[in-house]
């Protein structure tokens, strides 16, 4: 580590990891809700809805903390200068952490604006907006003062600003439910298939340059193409959420065509990663970072690309919309595209932040494979439940609960997959917080 | 590949801007058309208040509406057409009683009567949104094939048609089809006389004081009689 201010990333990473674990615990609780009968008294005070709000908000919070930490970590290296104000970065960390705690405790007491994934009430929204503006200020000032512009910086800053602007569309109260959902997707879809892809692709490009030693010009060139394709397919692809909400029929065409192309940029990213890895100019150290980079690229293609494509065409989506098929896709996509990317950054940065050039990889490797396979089984279990639901409820016309009865077994299976995932995640978090130095230090060339 | 840095940059700008411009134009047009598609002239203050109730109790993190939200409980898009205002009122006011035999529960959130009225107005408005005929299970054009088969095979007659049309299947099962909120209708003809059944349909508690079924008071006595006749055939 060359730059002192990279240290500000550490608390962001550490908190993100703890929230990640809490998210999984709540996920297991949701699975229990799905296949057992809970007493009415418990349902009255801690309903599924509250636990779901916590599960999803924890996801968003830990991923965003990871992105912010990642930004602070790569920025000094990329700009060749210290962070503009490390103090502000620490202060914002405290603000975001407190906002998160207040939001989660608030949910338990029904302090909630009742919009899925965007449940936090307006006063907290305002705190988040101010916090994000200050974060952007800190990032932009670092870049401006350094006077050293790179494509990675530009894409990263562009992605972060895009992310912040989109958040605003989720704040107002919309009278018309159709319009409400129309703009809800500006936050959710344009985040995960727009702004977040920009941020993730920039961070990923930076890590690739670091670990492969491939020329910057080559990586940056493909970064442009990937982002161009991500945004080309992703922006108009928002239409695949507008099929059934009371919007004009042309969205069936626009959404269908653009979103059918959405796997392309991800495929390009996979090919690109493999090529850079093959043409690497540095020897492989800290193999786990590599494992996460390559694994993440493939999982991204599987969860977001293929699973998304599977139900994005209107002819299919008519029957699968709002079923467990979406749940299956959601889990595989978020894990593959964003959780694994963050874990890759953590594996790159956290041992270094503790002054460890190389770390032992045994535990981390076990945890990686445990999580990857458990999440795959979880996706399959939800997927089977979703297909059963689509057929029985939407094609044959079974009642909602009569259908759920037939899906019950798959929810129980999902629970056990989740337990497996928790084991992998606990080991990962432990391994990252308390990394073990590599037994035999390889002499650096 | 002989792609230059400049070429890559133009892909970025061309891709982004073309998609963005298309998207923004369609957004403007959607705003224009949504007024018609959602019958915005019926979007009264009461409907808006109902939407606030929907959000206040975070209903959407268990239920879906327009297919969005939690997947833990039934979709609410067509709930007004499926179980009617009395059905909605019963479930919201007494979830513990109505869902007593269900293995999945709904929280008792102690809504005021006014809030329930507003919520019903909201659901009524939502049920009129033109959703391109989604969801399929509530589509008029595509009656679920199992019910279609049942209706075609049995000498269901006008009573059977009414049974389906008035949404009785959303709570009662016949031949494995239908909801779980009320008892199965198979063998009900053995339990009651035809007159009692007709009476039960229009005013449940007058026959069975413990019944949680909503009053089907929008049915005429003749229609209730026809449904009762259909049910008598199921013994």
List the helices and strands and how they pair.
The complex is a heterodimer of chains A (445) and B (235).
Chain A (H helix, E strand, L loop, with lengths): L8 H27 L4 H6 L2 H32 L6 H23 L13 H25 L4 H17 L9 H36 L3 H22 L12 H11 L2 H16 L8 H24 L3 H7 L3 H30 L8 H34 L4 H34 L12
Helix pairs in contact in A: 1-3, 1-15, 3-4, 3-5, 3-7, 3-13, 4-5, 5-6, 6-7, 7-8, 7-13, 8-9, 8-10, 10-11, 11-13, 13-14, 14-15
Chain B lengths: L4 H33 L7 H12 L7 E2 L2 E2 L9 H15 L1 H4 L14 H15 L17 H9 L3 H9 L7 E2 L2 E2 L9 H4 L2 H9 L1 H4 L13 H12 L3
Helix pairs in contact in B: 2-5, 3-5, 7-11, 9-11
> Which CATH class of the domain at 284-436 in chain A?
Mainly Alpha
Q: Which whole number gives the mean pLDDT of chain A?
A: 95
Please bin the fraction of helical residues of chain A.
over 70%
Q: What sort of overall outline of chain B do the alpha carbons produce when their principal axes are compared?
A: elongated
**Largest sheet of chain A at a glance?**
none
How would you explain this protein's 3D organization?
The complex is a heterodimer of chains A (445) and B (235). By secondary structure, chain A is an all-alpha fold. Chain A has a domain of 153 residues: Four Helix Bundle (Hemerythrin (Met), subunit A). Chain A is built from 15 helices and no strands. The model of chain A has no long low-confidence stretch (mean pLDDT 95). With 235 residues, chain B is mainly alpha-helical. Chain B folds into two domains: 88 residues, Cytochrome Bc1 Complex, Chain D, domain 2 (Orthogonal Bundle), CATH 1.10.760; 90 residues, Cytochrome Bc1 Complex, Chain D, domain 2 (Orthogonal Bundle), CATH 1.10.760. Chain B is built from eleven helices and four strands, in the order H-H-E-E-H-H-H-H-H-E-E-H-H-H-H. In chain B, strands 1-2 form a two-stranded antiparallel ribbon. In chain B, helix 2 crosses helix 5. Chain B is elongated and about 85 Å long. The termini of chain B are far apart.
């Amino acid at each position: 580590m060359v730059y002192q201010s990279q240290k500000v990333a550490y608390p962001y990473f550490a908190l993100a990891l703890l929230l990640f674990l809490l998210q999984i615990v709540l996920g297991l609780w949701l699975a229990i809700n799905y296949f057992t009968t809970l007493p009415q008294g418990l349902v009255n005070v801690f309903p599924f809805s509250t636990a779901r709000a916590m599960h999803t908000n924890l996801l968003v919070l830990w991923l965003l903390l990871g992105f912010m930490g990642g930004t602070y970590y790569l920025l000094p290296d990329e700009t060749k200068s210290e962070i503009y104000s490390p103090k502000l970065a620490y202060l914002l960390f405290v603000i975001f952490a407190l906002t998160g705690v207040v939001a989660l405790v608030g949910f338990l007491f029904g302090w909630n604006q009742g919009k899925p994934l965007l449940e936090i009430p307006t006063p907290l929204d305002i705190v988040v907006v101010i916090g994000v503006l200050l974060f952007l200020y800190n990032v932009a000032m670092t870049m401006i003062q350094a006077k050293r512009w790179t494509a990675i910086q530009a894409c990263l800053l562009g992605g972060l600003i895009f992310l912040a602007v989109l958040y605003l569309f989720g704040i107002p109260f919309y009278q018309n439910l159709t319009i409400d959902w129309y703009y809800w997707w500006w936050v959710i879809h344009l985040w995960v298939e727009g702004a977040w892809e920009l941020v993730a692709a920039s961070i990923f490009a930076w890590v690739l340059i670091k670990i492969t030693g491939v020329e910057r010009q080559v990586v940056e060139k493909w970064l442009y193409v990937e982002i161009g394709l991500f945004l080309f397919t992703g922006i108009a692809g928002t239409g695949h959420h507008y099929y059934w909400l009371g919007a004009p029929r042309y969205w069936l065409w626009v959404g269908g065509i653009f979103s059918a192309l959405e796997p392309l940029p991800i495929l390009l990213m996979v090919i690109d990663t493999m090529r850079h890895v093959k043409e690497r100019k540095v020897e492989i150290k800290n193999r786990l970072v590599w494992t996460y980079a390559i694994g993440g690229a493939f999982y991204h293609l599987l969860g977001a690309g293929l699973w998304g494509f599977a139900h994005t065409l209107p002819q299919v989506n008519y029957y699968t919309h709002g079923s467990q098929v979406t749940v299956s896709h959601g889990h595989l996509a978020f894990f593959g595209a964003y959780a694994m990317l963050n874990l890759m950054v953590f594996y790159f940065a956290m041992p270094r932040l503790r002054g460890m050039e190389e770390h032992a990889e045994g535990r981390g490797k076990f945890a990686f494979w445990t999580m990857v396979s458990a999440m795959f089984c979880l996706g399959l279990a939800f997927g089977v439940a979703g297909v059963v639901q689509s057929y029985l409820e939407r094609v044959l016309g079974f009642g909602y609960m009569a259908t759920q009865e037939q899906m019950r077994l798959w929810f129980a299976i999902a629970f056990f997959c989740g337990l497996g995932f928790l084991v992998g995640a606990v080991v990962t978090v432990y391994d990252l917080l308390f990394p073990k130095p590599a037994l035999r230090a390889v002499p650096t060339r | 590949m002989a792609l230059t840095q400049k070429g890559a940059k133009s892909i970025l700008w061309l891709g982004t801007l073309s998609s963005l411009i298309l998207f923004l134009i369609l957004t403007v047009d959607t705003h224009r058309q949504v007024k018609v598609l959602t019958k915005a002239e019926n979007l009264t203050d009461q409907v808006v208040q109902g939407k606030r109730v929907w959000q206040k109790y975070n209903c959407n993190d268990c239920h879906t509406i327009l297919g969005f939200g939690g997947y833990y409980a039934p979709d609410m898009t067509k709930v007004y057409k499926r179980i009617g205002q009395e059905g909605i009122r019963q479930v919201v006011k007494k979830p513990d009683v109505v869902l007593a035999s269900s293995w999945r529960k709904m929280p008792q959130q102690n809504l005021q009567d006014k809030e329930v009225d507003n919520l019903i107005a909201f659901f009524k408005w939502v049920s009129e949104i033109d959703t391109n005929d989604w969801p399929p299970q509530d589509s008029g054009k595509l009656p679920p094939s199992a019910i279609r088969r049942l209706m075609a095979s049995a000498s269901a007659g006008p009573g059977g048609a009414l049974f389906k049309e008035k949404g009785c299947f959303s709570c009662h099962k016949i031949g494995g089809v239908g909801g779980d909120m009320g008892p199965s209708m198979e063998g009900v003809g053995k339990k009651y006389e035809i007159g009692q059944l007709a009476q039960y349909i229009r005013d449940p508690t007058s026959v069975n004081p413990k019944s949680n079924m909503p009053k089907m008071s929008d049915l005429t006595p003749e229609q209730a009689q026809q449904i009762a006749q259909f049910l008598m055939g199921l013994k």
